[in-house]
Amino acid sequence: MADDISPEDLDRDLGSATYTRIYEALTRFEQMAERNALLGFYPSLTADTFEGMDRIDDALVSLAINLIYRRIGFDPEFTMEKRAREILDINLRFGSHFASFQHALLVKISNFPGLEAREAMTALCARGISGEHEKKAAKWLVSYLMDHEETRPTVVQFLGRMKDRDDLEPVVDYVRPTLTPEERENLDEW
Q: What's the pLDDT tens digit per position in 127-169?
């Protein structure tokens, strides 16, 4: 079809550092993927794709997060762990409040929200955060993940691992007021 994009064009556009080219290429790919699940290729999206771009906004970050999330169905070597790391990295480096909401929503509506939350929190603990932007994005993500009965227990467990780390302690402090008395007691014991 006329709107299809070849793997070569997709790679070239993703390497352009130009918002319009990257957004249009990903949109074309997404439309192709919706029509045909057996494409034989998938964009290699990482946070580095967006480094040095002329601009970046919620629409592009959202599109990237959605495509990375869906990649697991297209690429058998793309694991949940890798997906969690890639989405988290894009969210922390370039995301907004909206990106954190979307990231958490994808976790919460998945077939295995507890497992997805564990992967996201494992990635957060392994990666850590640096700078105010990443701190805000991490606070929002963790807060949103706590708003679901199937993800909350996992997140609370990870708060115990995070509370004594200089980079992640502000995230724990941000959500501490939302903890139940029992959760606060357990957190203090960990």
A: 999 999 999 999 999 999 999 999 999 999 999 999 999 999 9
Whole-angstrom distance, CA of residue 80 vs CA of residue 169: 26
How far is C-alpha 31 from the chain's CA centre? 21
Distances (CA, A) of 100 to 109, 128, 184: 14, 16, 24
d(CA 29, CA 23): 10
Is the full-model pTM beyond 0.85? yes
Residue boundaries of the structural domains of the chain: 1-78, 110-190
Per-position b or e across 103-117, b if 16+ CB within 10 A of its CB: bbebbbebeebbebb
- CA dist 74 and 99 (Å) reads 23
3-class SS at 143? helix
Q: Which residue in the block uniquely carries the two structure tokens 């014991």? A: 189
Non-local CB neighbours of 160 within 8 Å, separated by 6+ positions: 186, 187, 190
Q: How far apart are CA 81 and CA 123, in angstroms?
A: 8
Tally helices (H) and strands (E) across the chain.
Answer: 10, 0
Q: Report the alpha-carbon distance of residue 105 to residue 97 in Å, rounded.
A: 12
